[in-house]
Design brief:
Elements lengths: L1 H26 L28 H9 L9 H9 L10 H7 L14 H8 L1 H5 L2 H11 L9 H9 L1 H11 L27 H20 L3 H18 L5 H23 L5 H11 L8 H23 L1 H9 L9 H8 L5 H18 L4 H22 L4 H6 L4 H16 L3 H31 L28 E5 L2 E6 L21 E5 L25
Antiparallel strand pairs: 1-2, 2-3
Length: 545
């Protein structure tokens, strides 16, 4: 009887739900998405396109180019090294107009990549990734034209003019790359914007480091220092670009530059005067742009933009975010319009803004322990949200079918789960970069102390106040850095992200360890190069298809 009574009570509810669904899907007319332009929803108040949507690409580009001129922009000079098609695709007229420079000619002495040169010279060794081993070695270890692979020396020679442009660019104080929408990506808005000069900028930094190490190997100490400083300047300039990936690339280049600088400091031919000169040029360099600033602006705008594009264009945008491709047929467009057409998207936009407010608040915490605790909590929440949405979000859609607000919130949550990066990993990358910079300054003080006294200090405290105003703490523990004498030199290190003292062993030496360390003099690593690379350049036989 009780079961029958419950069934009788549920019947009207099911009929009501079914009737509402029938009305919604087959009778109600879909309409244009509704949203409010405000700081709480769209975040940007303009510019607005002809359809009434925020043009987020133009909004971000306008902010990025404030105060930019062809005379202060490093990229305006670097384009002379990259040419009109840095990634093998001709850049638009709009790109150069925004830079305020003329389009470089099609033919010119532009950057020749290490990969292309290596692949041409050693196709078989390219298949075994020997180009990566060689590049890492020539960027971070002293070498000579006679003792190293001829292809590396040739790479330096053919890029003489781009390297000269790079030095001029490094003296600029701004870095602006125009944001221009690209056709043929299958989507629109910020997701369609490419970064065509990012990889060429990385290539030019690798070139500078390789030449610095060649200079060092062949005894040109001042020239090596000159190239090293150009890389340190460029790495900071690149972080002015508002995109996260630009900062991550700059961090990677900076870590190689610290390795190369350590090799330079380890060379006994480098005098106290040279080290002091290097320190005095490095100290005034501006800090790296903070990641939380990019997350607060660019990542936030990216997610808001994708949400509104999804509201306007349908599930194709969501498919692009998850798969990198779009179903051009839009076979589910009608169902999508009936389900979400004419609804107000403010709740989803507000949810996204509140989410980013919390992320930025967490990343601004001064203490790393407090920062990571808040970020870990946010990471748990996003994982729980993914579980609640199911594998494809379909269950959440059907569950929320009777509420328009819940439907748009579900879509917003799906986009948030698709675009939400691992902020703990991002913060760790930034923390590692800060720690490496700090260790480099300690290493310069140690090397200068050794040149002037003939020994390394017994304790780091001996470096103050003459060589260092104050001793930096370990960025990861908040305590003093570890320091000890080893063989003929010394070792200074941080415990790294895992918070465990691994004895100064880095992840490169042991994947289970992750200390960040600098040893002076730097030990010579055993080469893993194929012996054939050291022979005069003779292209291998073509690889069979």
């Amino acid at each position: 009887m009780k079961k029958r009574k419950w069934r009788l009570l549920l019947l009207p509810l099911l009929l009501l739900a079914g009737g509402g669904s029938i009305y919604h899907f087959f009778i109600a007319e879909p309409g244009k998405p509704i949203f409010t332009i405000s700081r709480e929803t769209t975040y940007c108040l303009g510019p607005v396109d002809q359809e009434g949507y925020i043009d987020y690409v133009e909004a971000l580009d306008a902010l990025s180019r404030e105060g930019i001129t062809p005379e202060n922009n490093a990229l305006a000079i670097l384009m002379q090294a990259f040419g009109p098609a840095p990634e093998s695709a001709l850049l638009s007229d709009d790109f150069f107009q925004r830079l305020g420079i003329a389009r470089p000619p099609v033919e010119g002495e532009y950057v020749v990549t290490f990969v292309s040169l290596f692949k041409q010279s050693h196709p078989r060794l390219f298949l075994s990734a020997q180009h990566r081993v060689l590049l890492d070695q020539v960027m971070t270890h002293p070498w000579t034209e006679q003792a190293a692979a001829p292809v590396a020396a040739e790479w330096i020679k053919v890029n003489a003019k781009p390297l000269a442009w790079a030095h001029q660019a490094a003296l600029r104080d701004r870095y602006y790359q125009p944001m221009v929408k690209s056709r043929g990506t299958g989507t629109s808005g910020m997701s369609s914007c490419l970064l065509p000069t990012l990889q060429p900028t990385r290539e030019i930094c690798c070139l500078l480091l390789a030449r610095a190490m060649q200079h060092l190997g062949e005894g040109r100490i001042a020239e090596a220092r000159h190239d090293l400083l150009a890389v340190f300047r460029l790495s900071r300039l690149v972080t002015q670009d508002p995109c996260l990936i630009s900062s991550l690339m700059a961090f990677n280049i900076h870590s190689h530059a610290v390795e190369a600088a350590t090799a330079w400091l380890s060379d006994p031919r480098v005098t106290a005067k040279e080290i002091a000169h290097f320190r005095d040029e490095l100290n005034p360099l501006p800090p790296f742009a903070k990641l939380h600033e990019k997350i607060d602006l660019t990542e936030r705008l990216m997610m808001l933009d994708n949400t509104l594009i999804t509201a306007r264009d349908g599930l194709g945008q969501l498919e692009f975010l998850s798969r990198g491709s779009v179903d051009a047929s839009q076979k589910n467009r009608k169902l999508y319009d009936l389900y979400l057409g004419g609804l107000k998207w403010d709740p989803a936009l507000k949810d996204i803004n509140q989410w980013f407010d919390r992320i930025v608040e967490a990343m601004r915490e001064e203490k790393r322990e407090d920062r990571n605790k808040k970020l870990a909590q946010l990471d748990v929440e996003i994982k729980q949200l993914r579980v609640s949405l199911g594998q494809d979000g379909a269950s959440a859609f059907f569950y929320n079918v009777m509420s328009g607000e819940n439907r748009v919130r579900t879509m917003g949550n799906l986009i948030r789960c698709q675009l939400n990066p691992n902020f703990i990993l991002l913060q760790t990358a930034e923390d590692r970069n800060v720690q490496l910079e700090s260790l480099l300054h300690v290493a310069m003080a140690l090397a200068l102390f050794q040149r002037e006294t003939g020994r390394y200090p017994k304790e780091l405290e001996e470096l103050t106040p003459k060589y260092l105003t104050t001793l930096p703490n370990d960025h990861f523990s908040g305590k003093s850095l570890f320091y000890r004498h080893v063989e003929e030199g010394c070792l200074v290190y941080s415990i790294g992200p895992n918070g465990v003292d691994d004895g100064g062993i880095t992840k490169q030496e042991d994947v289970k360890a992750d200390d960040l360390s600098i040893r002076l003099p730097r030990p010579i690593k055993k080469s893993k190069l194929d012996p054939n690379l050291l022979l005069p350049r003779q292209p291998d036989n073509p690889v069979s298809p």
